[in-house]
TrEMBL record:
It comes from Floridaenema fluviatile BLCC-F154. Keywords: Amino-acid biosynthesis, Cytoplasm, Diaminopimelate biosynthesis, Lysine biosynthesis, NAD, NADP, Oxidoreductase. Its main location: cytoplasm. InterPro entries: DapB_C, DapB_N, DapB_N_CS, DHDPR_bac, NAD(P)-bd_dom_sf. The keyword Nucleus does not apply. Residues 7-137 form the Dihydrodipicolinate reductase N-terminal domain. Belongs to the DapB family. SUPFAM superfamilies: Glyceraldehyde-3-phosphate dehydrogenase-like, C-terminal domain, NAD(P)-binding Rossmann-fold domains. It catalyses: (S)-2,3,4,5-tetrahydrodipicolinate + NADP(+) + H2O = (2S,4S)-4-hydroxy-2,3,4,5-tetrahydrodipicolinate + NADPH + H(+); (S)-2,3,4,5-tetrahydrodipicolinate + NAD(+) + H2O = (2S,4S)-4-hydroxy-2,3,4,5-tetrahydrodipicolinate + NADH + H(+). Residues 140-275 form the Dihydrodipicolinate reductase C-terminal domain. This is 4-hydroxy-tetrahydrodipicolinate reductase. The active site is at H164, K168. Catalyzes the conversion of 4-hydroxy-tetrahydrodipicolinate (HTPA) to tetrahydrodipicolinate. It comes from the Bacteria.
Length: 275
């Protein structure tokens, strides 16, 4: 269904690494308009969002006024959408506020607990408001997860390694947790122990996420976002790996999510559900 008016988009976390990419992508999408750009970093206050993003002047100054911006988005003829790439400590409250204003959240920020996501799902359902929470917007990661689910039918042993830049606030990554969850949904327990293990150094074996699946987190400058799912069986190793080399890879997924969320009346989790 083609909308008569462009979708008004507010970007929360506009001056961040992901926020800047979103500003550029929204500015280049003919069916969207950048209504607002929010960031609490005082160094970018009142600066033009387009100039901060490196795509030329957009005449949208960055503000730290979150609720007034939501109120403005709620007044638009076409349903407003809030894209959030901020921080795990504030994302829950921001998404709840957006839903209360009838503004559709598209959430890329990771690190919310299962309970928080469940509460937001109930809140969105009651408000009949669409909300998308997407722990990874890249199509390559969705394909990796689908391949991992297939492989899990034939392998009983699997471990996940996720590698990210060292400014990432949460560990393990939301994507790695989601991958473990998808494998656990296959209804079996992985990695039956063959010996009694003793960790000489706490955390050496990573942490157990779901159904015996261990996740190991690496943080280093020079990395962006990477994930390996390693299956093992007698005489063979099957490795799936996804590497992000540029944050632009997330933007087709973000634009798709902005379009789709205006059609939803409840919370949906995961890019694979809207492809
Ligand atoms: N879903 C995905 O595909 C995907 C991809 C990459 C990153 N992420 C996640 O997105 C989030 C942001 O990542 P980033 O690399 O852009 O981080 P970043 O630190 O570069 O940017 C975050 C921005 O948000 C701002 N901010 C933080 N809290 C705020 C608040 N309460 N109100 C307004 N502004 C606030 C900061 O000032 C900063 O400019 C992280 O949780 C990261 O894990 C998700």
């Amino acid at each position: 269904m083609t909308n008569q008016y462009p979708i008004p988009v507010v970007v929360n976390g506009a001056a961040g690494k992901m926020g800047r990419e979103v500003i550029k992508a929204v500015a280049g999408a003919s069916d969207m308009t950048l209504l607002g750009a929010i960031d609490h970093n005082p160094e970018v206050l009142d600066k033009d969002a387009g100039e901060i993003a490196g795509c030329g002047t957009l005449e949208v100054p960055i503000t730290n006024q979150f609720e007034p911006m939501l109120a403005m988005a709620a007044q638009e003829r076409q349903l407003g959408v809030m894209v959030d790439f901020t921080h795990p400590s504030t994302v829950y409250d921001s998404v709840r506020s957006a839903i209360a204003y009838g503004v559709r959240p598209v959430v890329g920020t990771t690190g919310m607990s299962t309970q928080q996501i469940q509460e937001l799902a109930e809140f969105a359902e009651k408000a009949s408001t669409g909300c998308l929470i997407i722990p990874n917007f890249s199509i390559g990661m969705v394909l990796l997860q689908q391949a991992a689910v297939q492989a899990s039918k034939y392998f009983d042993h699997v471990e996940i390694i996720e590698l990210h830049h060292n400014q990432k606030a949460d560990a393990p990554s939301g994507t790695a947790v989601q991958t473990a969850k998808l494998l656990a949904e296959m209804g079996k327990t992985f990695n039956p122990p063959l010996v009694k293990e003793e960790e000489k150094l706490a955390g050496a074996r990573g942490s157990v996420a779901e159904e015996g699946i261990r996740i190991h987190s690496v943080r280093l400058p020079g990395l962006i976002a990477h994930q390996e799912v390693i299956f093992g069986a007698a005489g063979q190793i099957y490795t799936l790996r996804h590497d992000t080399s540029d944050r632009a890879c997330y933007m087709p997924g973000v634009l798709l999510a902005i379009r789709q969320v205006t059609q939803l009346k409840s919370l949906v989790y995961g890019l694979e559900k809207i492809l």
